C-alpha cells in the first residue's frame, strides 16, 4: 500500500523541483492527475499571473545555483515578490501539515523528505541516481512505513490524504510494483 506513497514522494520531489519547463496553466496537467492535486495547490497554480510565470521560468532556469529550497524562495522574492508570497504560502501549508503529524509520523516524514531532497540535489548536480538505488530507497521506506504504529499511519493519512489515496489505488500500486520489484 505504501509503495505508491513513497513513489509519489519521489515523484513529488521531481515535480516540485525548480525546472525550466513550467506548465502554462492547470489545464496543461493531464486530467487523470488533476484530481490528485490538493485544492490549495490547484488554487495556487491558477493564481499565478503570466508575469509571475515568466519570473518563475527565469528563476527556475538558474536551479543549479540554489543550495536549498530557501535559496530558491529568496531568488523568487527578488524576481517577483508577489510570486514569492504565493510560493511561501504553499511552502507553509506543507510545513504545517508536517507539524500536525504525531511525533513518530513526523520523524518518518522528515527523514523521507530529507532523503528525497538529497536525491533531488544530486540529480540537479548531474548525478542521476541509478534505478537500483531508487528501488532500494523505496523498499527501505516501505519497510519503515510498515513498521510504524497504527497511530503514525493514521496521522499521515489525516494530513496527507491524497498520498494515502494514491497508496490505495490499485492502478498506481500495479505500476509502482512493476518498477520496484
CATH architecture designation: Up-down Bundle
Global morphology: globular
* Highest-level CATH class: Mainly Alpha
Would you tell me the structural class of the helices and strands? mainly alpha
Main location: secreted
Family: Belongs to the fatty-acid and retinol-binding protein (FARBP) family.
Protein name: Fatty-acid and retinol-binding protein 1
GO molecular function: lipid binding
Structure summarized in a few sentences:
With 181 residues, this protein is mainly alpha-helical. Helix content is 76%, strand content 0%. It has one domain: Up-down Bundle (Four Helix Bundle (Hemerythrin (Met), subunit A)), CATH 1.20.120.1100.
Question: How would you describe what is shown here?
Answer:
- Helix content is 76%, strand content 0%.
- It is mostly helical and 181 residues long.
- The longest helix has 22 residues, at 103-124.
Amino acid at each position: 500500500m505504501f509503495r505508491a506513497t513513497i513513489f509519489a514522494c519521489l515523484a513529488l520531489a521531481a515535480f516540485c523541483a525548480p525546472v525550466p519547463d513550467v506548465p502554462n496553466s492547470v489545464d496543461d496537467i493531464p486530467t487523470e492527475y488533476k484530481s490528485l492535486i490538493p485544492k490549495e495547490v490547484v488554487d495556487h497554480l491558477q493564481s499565478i499571473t503570466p508575469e509571475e510565470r515568466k519570473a518563475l521560468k527565469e528563476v527556475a532556469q538558474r536551479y543549479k545555483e540554489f543550495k536549498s529550497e530557501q535559496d530558491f524562495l529568496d531568488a523568487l522574492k527578488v524576481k517577483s515578490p508577489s510570486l514569492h508570497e504565493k510560493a511561501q504560502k504553499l511552502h507553509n501549508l506543507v510545513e504545517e501539515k508536517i507539524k500536525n503529524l504525531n511525533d513518530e509520523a513526523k520523524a518518518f516524514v522528515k527523514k523521507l523528505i530529507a532523503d528525497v531532497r538529497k536525491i533531488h540535489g544530486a540529480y540537479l548536480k548531474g548525478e542521476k541516481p541509478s534505478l537500483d538505488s531508487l528501488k532500494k530507497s523505496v523498499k527501505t521506506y516501505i519497510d519503515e512505513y510498515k513498521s510504524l504504529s497504527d497511530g503514525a499511519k493514521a496521522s499521515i493519512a489525516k494530513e496527507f490524504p491524497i498520498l494515502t489515496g494514491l497508496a490505495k489505488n490499485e492502478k498506481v500500486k500495479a505500476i509502482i510494483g512493476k518498477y520496484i520489484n
